[in-house]
Amino acid sequence: MRELAPDENSTILPLLETIRNKAVFALSVIDGIQQGSVYVNEGNRITSAFITSSGGFYSVAGDETNDAFAQDVIQYMNDESNHPDFFALGVYTQAWENKINDYRIQHSQKISRSYYRFNQDRFIKSYGEFDKKLEKLFEYYPLDLDIATKYREHFYPYYKLVWPSAEKFCAHGIGHFIMKHEELISVCTSPYVGGGYAEIDIITVEEFQRQGLASKLGVLFIQDCLSQNLIPNWSCHTDNGASNKLAQRLGFEKIGEHSMYWYHA
User: Fold this and answer.
1) Which of 74, 75, 115, 222 is paired with 262 by a 20 to 30 Å CA distance?
2) Are 176 and 189 in contact (CB under 8 A)?
3) How confident is the model at residue 129 (pLDDT cuts 50, 70, 90)?
């Protein structure tokens, strides 16, 4: 396989047409918003693609019958120098899953991932129930440079991989935060933005879960997306009951489950 130059990346968009909201990270790389690479099969006609992101999310798309291309993908996956301490290879068709299963991706486990589509009408009908005032000890903050820096440096260092600087996170990302005594306790942020979509990532410190914080921040995130003409996007592990439940409460409709090859140090 060969790597495309950044100005060629958009040539693979037709291969992603049916999986756009399942691979927002790939669209972000293609748009040049976030870092990554696009690899395609040898030859003049592009039929298969392998997209990588600096955050460790990867995807295959297009024709799965090219054995040489599939072997190159597996070789890339099995080279530890290509990854941070995490990777997640998404496959969105049974044919690609069957092809990948012919090989072994070192250190990985195959998990199931659930994917959702945003239904704005459902959201509008339901979001009012989350419009509750925060307790006095809780403080809400929108995304700005100070909180982006605090978030990346001290709360969730993964965002140093997906957003190479706090400035770029503020310029292109979405974030809503709740703090208590100047410490982050609940966040709703975008690890990836691309192709008109913004991926949702919600974390609440265990001590403060089941208090409606994630719901409130989810509503603010979605409203922020709509004001910027972005489509909020949701995916999560299939066995994450709380995340799947919250997705549906916020107006998302499940559209399917697909396998993912997952590793975390």
Assistant:
1) 222
2) yes
3) low
